[in-house]
Amino acid sequence: MSREPATDLPGSAALPGTLSTALRDELIAFRRDLHMHPELGNQEFRTTAALKARLEKAGLRPRVLSTGTGLMCDIGVRDGTPELPLFALRADIDALPIPDTKTGVAYRSTVPDRAHACGHDVHTTTVLGAGLVLAELDRQGLLTRPVRLIFQPAEEVLPGGATDSIESGVLEGVGKIIAVHCDPRVDAGVIGLRAGAITSACDRLEISLDGPGGHTARPHLTTDLVTAVAKVATEVPALLARRVDTRAGLAVTWGRIEAGHACNVIPQHAELSGTVRCLDLPSWRAAPDLVHTAIDEIARLYGAKTEITYVRGVPPVVNDPAVAELLREAQTARRGASAIEDTEQSLGGEDFSWYLEQVPGAMARLGVRTPGDDIQRDLHRGDFDVDEYAIEVGVELFTAAALLDVPRD
Questions:
Q1: Cα 256 to chain center, whole Å?
Q2: Cβ(365)–Cβ(126) below 8 Å
Q3: What is the β-pairing status of strands 63-64 and 71-75?
Q4: Which of 182, 71, 130 shows the shortest CA–CA distance to 334?
Q5: Contacts of 347 (CB under 8 A, 6+ apart)
């Protein structure tokens, strides 16, 4: 596949907003700088300052969010009030608390146990690049509608920084919103699209079980918490599978179990934690009551007292069909229909879903795999990296979508 935008497609020659070589190189350098200096959710002060400085250099007026990190920036807005609904581009700016284990690259993380292992540095750079291109088009009188850039903190922190960003006013005046997420299974130059749900809901579950302990020689005088917590771990997922339509994909998966300190002592306390994931919105909304009931039923059989902490995470990202089609048209105009592939719904969670609870929008999967690379790679791993050609593709997808969207009063 060619690494240049197509020029022989219908409408492609008339669609401005391709990257210059100078801007392409600058954006790659910007992404590498972010990659070397990752910051966790709500601690993204250096990242916020770097974005603010670059946008101000372009003559824009970004505003830091009330949370203290993250910012938004409007383009094409005159006298403070947009004449048309804003077309929003969203990026998440935080990193993960894991070590960077890549070798052979000069831009490895310089911060111990911190890494951009989910591609947020790429998301951020593509929205920045699109903003710089659109600002130049606005100066030339070629921008047909106002655009808002949203750089959101704390996507990796449940229930996600999107809720705080919305409270800061990022959706005020917004008519549509789009985003991308890196996908290491898709070649750079290609995007994955899907109308409807593209991610799943994700909640966090913490359970404490308590009861009188004692000697393992006399379990009948105790609440056998080791058996109780084991039964909760194995039987709650099975019980839920019979109480929810299997098409909802409701899944409880445990990540931690802890009970006891000695082989001959039945403990007084046990803990279990994991995630609840779900494919559709109705089942996600019903999940807390269903999970609570199932846990209590199993624990009661063994005389264990339970304390359940159910932390609401994020609903599924449900792409609006019309906005997903706009992204398809934008990518087709830039690189042709062959640069688009259908994608499946994943079980991962993404707090972009909170924006879509309020305004129509869509998320595309941005291919970041080097074509021909047959090594299996995944997100949230210390060796995660991208083919940086994806930055150019993301920038031009965003700019084309903003230019192709038909403004309506």
A1: 24
A2: no
A3: antiparallel
A4: 130
A5: 199, 200, 249, 251, 277, 279
Cα–Cα distances (Å) from 19 to 23, 46, 75, in that order, read: 6, 26, 18
Tokens in use for 18?
Answer: 């391709």
Pick the CATH number of 201-314 from 3.20.20.100, 3.30.70.360, 3.40.50.1820, 3.40.50.1220: 3.30.70.360
Is pTM beyond 0.85? Reply is yes
* Predicted pLDDT at 37: 98
pLDDT at 160: 83
| Domain coordinates in residue numbering, the chain | 21-196+317-404, 201-314
Fold: same for 21-196+317-404 and 201-314: no
Question: Phi, psi (5° rounding) for residue 253?
Answer: -125, 130
- Measured CA distances, 149 to 32, 80, 88, 220, 405 (Å): 21, 15, 6, 63, 16
Alpha-carbon Rg for the chain, nearest whole angstrom, is 24
Nearest to 49 by CA among 151, 142, 141, 188: 151
CA distance 175 to 177: 7
- Provide the pLDDT for residue 347: 87
- Residue 238's CB is within 10 A of a number of other CB atoms, namely 11
Given a contact cutoff of 8 angstroms between Cβ atoms, the answer to whether 401 and 326 are in contact is yes
**Could you give phi then psi for residue 87, rounded to 5 degrees?**
-100, 115
Q: List all residues 6 or more positions away from 205 whose beta carbon is below 8 Å from its beta carbon.
A: 252, 273, 274, 275, 276, 291, 308, 309, 310, 311
pLDDT digits 0-9 by tens, 312-325: 999 999 999 999 99
Phi/psi at 4 (5° precision) = -115, 145
Q: Which residues of the chain have pLDDT under 50?
A: 11-13
- Residue range 21-196+317-404 in CATH 3.40.630.10: yes
Token readout for 141 is 């009188």
- Distance CA(260)–CA(226), nearest Å, equals 8
The pLDDT score that the predictor gives to residue 409 is 54
